[in-house]
Structure formats: C-alpha cells, structure tokens
Amino acid sequence: MNINATLFLQAIVFAVLVWFTMRFVWPPITKALDERAQKIADGLAAADKAKAELANANKKVDEQLAQTRGETTRLLGDAEKRAVAIVEEAKKRAEDEGAKIVAAAKAEAEQQVVRAREALREQVAALAVKGAEQILQREVNASVHAELLGRLKTEL
C-alpha cells in the first residue's frame, strides 16, 4: 500500500468521525452544557434575588425593632407617669386622712379641755362654797379668814 492512499483513507475516516461526532455526539454534549450553564445562571440569579430579599427583610426587621423600641419606651414612660400619679394620689389621700385624724384629735382634745374646765369650775365652786360655809360658821376674824383663805389657795 501506498502511504498516500493510507493517508487519504485516514483523512476520509477522520472526516466521517468528525461528521458523526458533530451530528450525533456534539449536540447532546452542548445541550447538557447549555442546560448546566442555564442552571448555574438561574442559581446565581436566585441567589442575588435572595440577597436582595434578605436585605429588605433585614430592613423591615430593623424598622420593626425601632418601632417596637419606641413603643416600649413610650409605654414605659406612660407607666412611670401613671405610677407617679398613683403615688401622688396615695400621698394626697394619706395627707387628707392624716388631716382628718389630726382634726378629730384636736376636737377631742378641745372637748376634754372644756370638760376639764367645767370639772375644775365645779370643784372651784364647791371649794368656794365650802370656804364660805367655813367662814360663815366661825366668827369674823381677819387672822382666821387669812388662815382659811390660805388653806383654800392650797386646795385650788
């Protein structure tokens, strides 16, 4: 055989192999590669979309946290104001009750003072009558009267 004929035959076999490969083998390989590339592109797009959604979700969470913190601060302020108001109201009630108790005690003390004065007046009147009886029962004598008056003073 001649080298040229062998080379020519090998070129024909190679051309048939290239045609067969391009016709039957290459299209499924390129289709599989294109599908894989599309899946990768879709995955990257989904990842970008997920990143954007995550960023939006983080923003919303931060906004809600800020809103919740503000509302909590407001509620705590309202609660503190209410607590102060309750304490002030209790203090006022206690002061009013204390004033009532003091007023009642003063009135009771004044009544006792009045009763003591009345009792003292009755005792003084009784002593005066007793002293007058003793003076009238005895004879009129200045020294005797002075002695009786001295005893009367000590009894008062």
UniProtKB/TrEMBL annotation:
Transmembrane segments: 6-26
Mode of membrane association: Single-pass membrane protein
Pfam name, any one: ATP-synt_B
Domain of life of the organism encoding this protein: Bacteria
Gene3D superfamilies: F1F0 ATP synthase subunit B, membrane domain
Key words of the record: ATP synthesis, Cell membrane, CF(0), Coiled coil, Hydrogen ion transport, Ion transport, Membrane, Transmembrane, Transmembrane helix, Transport
InterPro entries reported in the protein's UniProt record: ATP_synth_B-like_membr_sf, ATP_synth_b/b'su_bac/chlpt, ATP_synth_F0_bsu_bac, ATP_synthase_B_chain
Residues forming coiled coils: 40-71
Subcellular location: Cell membrane; Endomembrane system
Subunit structure: F-type ATPases have 2 components, F(1) - the catalytic core - and F(0) - the membrane proton channel. F(1) has five subunits: alpha(3), beta(3), gamma(1), delta(1), epsilon(1). F(0) has three main subunits: a(1), b(2) and c(10-14). The alpha and beta chains form an alternating ring which encloses part of the gamma chain. F(1) is attached to F(0) by a central stalk formed by the gamma and epsilon chains, while a peripheral stalk is formed by the delta and b chains.
Role this protein plays: Component of the F(0) channel, it forms part of the peripheral stalk, linking F(1) to F(0). The b'-subunit is a diverged and duplicated form of b found in plants and photosynthetic bacteria.
Assigned protein family: Belongs to the ATPase B chain family.
Protein name: ATP synthase subunit b
Protein source organism: Roseateles violae
Gene: atpF
